[in-house]
Amino acid sequence: MATSEPRATGGDQDPNSANLRPPSTRFLQKNNSLEEKGRLAGQKNLLSCDNSDRDARFRRTETDFSNLFARDLLPAKNGEEPTIQFLLEVVDILTNYVKKTFDRSTKVLDFHHPHQLLEGMEGFNLELSDQPESLEQILVDCRDTLKYGVRTGHPRFFNQLSSGLDIIGLAGEWLTSTANTNMFTYEIAPVFVLMEQLTLKKMREMIGWPSGEGDGLFSPGGAISNMYSVMIARYKYFPEVKTKGMSAAPRLVLFTSEHSHYSIKKAGAALGFGTENVILLSTDERGRVIPADLEAKIIDAKQKGYVPLFVNATAGSTVYGAFDPINEIADICEKYNLWLHVDGAWGGGLLMSRKHRHKLSGIERANSVTWNPHKMMGVPLQCSAILVREKGILAGCNSMCAGYLFQPDKQYDVTYDTGDKAIQCGRHVDIFKFWLMWKAKGTIGFEQHIDKCLDLSQYLYNKIKNREGYEMVFDGVPQHTNVCFWYIPPSLRGMPHGDERREKLHRVAPKIKAMMMESGTTMVGYQPQGNKVNFFRMVVSNPAATQSDIDFLIDEIERLGHDL
Amino acid sequence: MATSEPRATGGDQDPNSANLRPPSTRFLQKNNSLEEKGRLAGQKNLLSCDNSDRDARFRRTETDFSNLFARDLLPAKNGEEPTIQFLLEVVDILTNYVKKTFDRSTKVLDFHHPHQLLEGMEGFNLELSDQPESLEQILVDCRDTLKYGVRTGHPRFFNQLSSGLDIIGLAGEWLTSTANTNMFTYEIAPVFVLMEQLTLKKMREMIGWPSGEGDGLFSPGGAISNMYSVMIARYKYFPEVKTKGMSAAPRLVLFTSEHSHYSIKKAGAALGFGTENVILLSTDERGRVIPADLEAKIIDAKQKGYVPLFVNATAGSTVYGAFDPINEIADICEKYNLWLHVDGAWGGGLLMSRKHRHKLSGIERANSVTWNPHKMMGVPLQCSAILVREKGILAGCNSMCAGYLFQPDKQYDVTYDTGDKAIQCGRHVDIFKFWLMWKAKGTIGFEQHIDKCLDLSQYLYNKIKNREGYEMVFDGVPQHTNVCFWYIPPSLRGMPHGDERREKLHRVAPKIKAMMMESGTTMVGYQPQGNKVNFFRMVVSNPAATQSDIDFLIDEIERLGHDL
C-alpha cells in the first residue's frame, strides 16, 4: 500500500503576475456589434477565452505518482504537468473500463457482500483518514472502485430501466463536470441554460403542444419530476396553498394506477396530501388503468366531500411497461376539470419513434409530462424533464425571488434566469449530455435505438411465450420492452397449482438472480406484483444488447434454475 | 460546418460469440471463503472483471472524425478504436480547458447576450435536428460550449459560494459518469453505497453525535436537504401526516432567520405548511438570529393557537456568512420541544477546521444538519448531505416499500438498500468525488483549504475596511469568508446621505458587475438586503485564489467604478 507520509512542503500558490486587461474600459453594452466582435477578437492574445488551441495536444509520459499528492496538482506551482499526467492516467483507467464494458468475455459484476467490501478487499480500504494518500494510491482506488462495481453498460445488464453506456453521453458528462457550473442563472451557465430551453421546446413539440409552447425544467429524477406535477396542479387550482398551507384547501385527492410508480404516493406524503388521499386505480390484466374505475372513484370521492385534483396516467409502467389509455383518461379529466399528468419517465422515449408513439396518443392533452431521457433514450444518469403546458406556472408555484441570485438589475434579459422556477437552488447541469447526444444521433438516431429495443423485446417474447418451462405474467405482445415471465423449474412443472407451488415458485426468481450475481454473467430484475409471486421483469434499453444476449439470458436462467 | 449526410451503413452489432461461463454452477453463498476467492481468481482468464490490465495503455492517433458518426462508436462493430480516439480527443479539449482555467491571462468568461448565442456564434448552432452530425462537429460543439461558458474554477471567479475546480474531484466525476449507476440499491452500486455510509458517518462524527450514529443521505443540493429536514421534523411529531395529510395536524409553524436561505420558505410552500407559517426571525446587525426574538415568536405563535414545530439555525448565511448562535437556539428548542435543524450548507465545512469549528458550537445538539461539500470544501457540483441524529426516521418518513426495487428476499443484507429513505427513486452518485477527495487530501487537506480561504477573506477585510471609497455593510471581522461592502465612486463620496445617494449607490454595483462581465476579468456577486441598497458580496471558496487575486478584484472595482 502506497500510503506515504505527506511531504513537508505545501503546494504554494503561484499567481501569474500578468494581470492583463483590455486596453480600454468598455461600458455596459446591450449588443456587441460586429465591429465590437472584431475588436474583441483582436484582444485574444492578451486575454483569451479560446479553447481551440490545437497545438497544445497532450503527451502522455511515465510519471511516478507515489510521491505526488493532491496538493501538487493545479493550482499548485508547477502543477500543470502532474495535473495533466494524473488526468490522463485516470482516463487510461476509464477507457480500459469502457472497452471491457462492451466485452462479453468480462463479467457484469464481481459480487461481494457488504461485510466483505467493508473488511477491505486486497487492500481496497474504504475508510477515510486525516492524512492524505499519494496519487498512486488514488489511482489504485479508482481501479478498485470500478473493479467491485457493476457494469451497467454491459450488453448483458438488464437489471434496470436505465442501462447502457452511451459514448457521446459519457463525453458530455465529462465536459459537464469539467465546466462544473450551476443551472440557476444565465450569468454562470449561459450556454447550458439556452440548451435546456431549446431542448425542452423540442420535447414539448414532440408531445404535441402547439408550437412547443409551455414550460419545463430538468430535475434530479422522475420522482422529483412527478412531485413537481402534483405541486403545480395544486398551485393551479388552489394557489393560496403556497402561502396559507394545505389548510386553505379542502381535502384534495389524487388518482393514479395501482401499477404506477411509487413516487406519486411519495409526493402525496411529502406535499401534505397524505398517502390515503392518493387513490389507486384498478387496471386490466395488462396493467392499464380502467377508465370507468377512474370515473367511479372520482364520483365516489366527490360524494364523500373530497375534491379530486389530479390524475396521473402512466405511459410505460415500471413492471409491466403498460401504457394507460390517455385519451379516455383525458376525457374524464376534462369532464371533471382535473389536472392530467402523464408519467412518461419510462415510456416518454417512444414519442421519438414514428412506429410506437401512438402508444402515447392523447399525451398532447396532458397538463404536464414527466419524461426521463436517462431511461429509454440511454442518456447517462441523471436526466429527467418535467414539462408543463401552461407557461409561467412553474415560476408562480415556486418562486421566492431571492435577491442575492435573481437580481432584476442585471445587464441581460433576466427572464433567462430560470432558477427560481425550481424547488432546488443549485441545480446540476443535466442538459449537456442529452443535447450532445441529440446533436450526434439526430432524432432518427433515438428512433432507431428505440425501435431496436422494442424489436428485441418482441424477439424475447416470441422466444419464450410457448417455450417449455415459461409462463407469461400477462398475455399478448408487451407494449413496451418489459417482458414479464416466470421460469418454472422442471421440479415444479408437474405440480398442481396451489399454495405449495406458489410458495416454491416465489423463491425461484430470487435464487436464480442470486446465482447470476454470484457468477456475474448477467443481471435481470424480479419482483412480485399484487397477488402474483416473484417473476422476472426483463427490460431492454441497452443499445449494446443483441439477440444473442437475449438468448444468453434464457440459457443462463435455464442453466441456473434447472435443478431448483 | 461539418454537417454531412449520414452514411447508409448502420452500426451493426457484433456480439462476441464467446459465451464463457465459470466451469461449475456455484449456488447461493453468504460468504466467499478464501478458498473460494482463490478459485475465482483462477477464473480470471475466462471471465474477468479486472480493470488493472496495464499493458492496454492508450495510444493517441490522428483520426479523421469528419466521416465518423455516433453510430460508429461502441457498441458498433469495430467501434473500439474510434471510441477511444474520440474520447481522447474530448479529453484533449478538457485538459486544455483545465489548464486555461488556472491561467490568469485568460478571461473568466466571454460574455454574450442570450439573443447573440441563440442567433449562432460563428457556427455554434444550438438547434437540434433530425439528422446526426459528424463527430468532428460534435468536437467543435464541445469546444464552443466551453468557449462561451463561464470558468467557475478561474482564480478570479468569486461569484458563487461554489467555485474552484478540484482536480481530484474532477477525476472522481469522470469516473462516476463512466460507472453510470444509481444509488438506490447495493445491488447495482455496492461500492458507492458503502462509501456513502462511511462518509456520512465521518461527517456525523465531526458534528459530534455520539459514535457518529444517526442517518443521512446525499441529496441533489442544499434546498432539497433542507426540505428533508422539515419533512422529517413533521414526521417525528406528526407521523400521521404521512398517511392523512396536513389536515391531520394542527397549524404548524416553522422558524428561520430573515437572513436564511430561501429554501426553508420553498420547503414550507411545497410541503403544505404555507409560507405564512414560516416565521422569520430578526437578526442583529451581523445577520445572526436574536434568540430572544425566537422565544418571543414561539410564545406568540402558541398564544395564537399555532403549534411551533421546527427551528432552522443557519451556520453561514448566504449573504453575510453569519452563524446563528446554535447553543442558545438549542436551549429554546429543548424548552419548547422543537426540532432543531442547522443549515450548514455553506458553513458546515468549517467543522473540518480546528481553528474555526467553534463557530458551529452547539451543532451536536441539532436534530438534523445540512452540509454541502460542494460549497466550502470545493467538491464539484452536486454534493449535499442531509444528516439526521435519529436513526430510522428518514426511512419511516419516506419509505413506500416498492416491491420491484427493494425485494426483501435478496441474497445480501438488504439494509444496505438505502433508496427507500429518499424522496427520489433514482439517485445520482454524488459520493465518489467527495470520498476520493477526502482520501487524497485527508481531513487536514480540507482544514488547510478552509483556513486559507478564511485568511484570504480577512486579508480582503483588512485591506478595505478603512480604505477610501469603501463602506462595510456590517462592522467587525466576518465570521465566514463573506465580505460585504459598498464601493463609493468619487462622484458620490461628498454627497449627503439621503434618497438620492441611496438611489445612485444602488446602481453602482450592478454597473460595475456588468462591466466586469463584459470585459471578462473577474466576477463577484452583489445584492440588496433588507433596506440596504445593492452591495458587493465577496466570498472565497476557490482554492486557486490568492492575495494577488483579491488585490486584482479591488483594483478592478476601482478601475471600472471610478467614473460612475
UniProtKB/TrEMBL annotation, chains A, B:
Q: Which UniProt keywords apply?
A: Decarboxylase, Lyase, Pyridoxal phosphate
The molecular function terms in GO held by this entry are: glutamate decarboxylase activity; pyridoxal phosphate binding
Task: Write out the GO cellular component annotations.
Answer: cytoplasm; presynaptic active zone
Presence of keyword Lyase: yes
Q: Name one Pfam family in it.
A: Pyridoxal_deC
Tell me the subunit arrangement: Homodimer.
Report what the protein is called. Glutamate decarboxylase 1 isoform X2
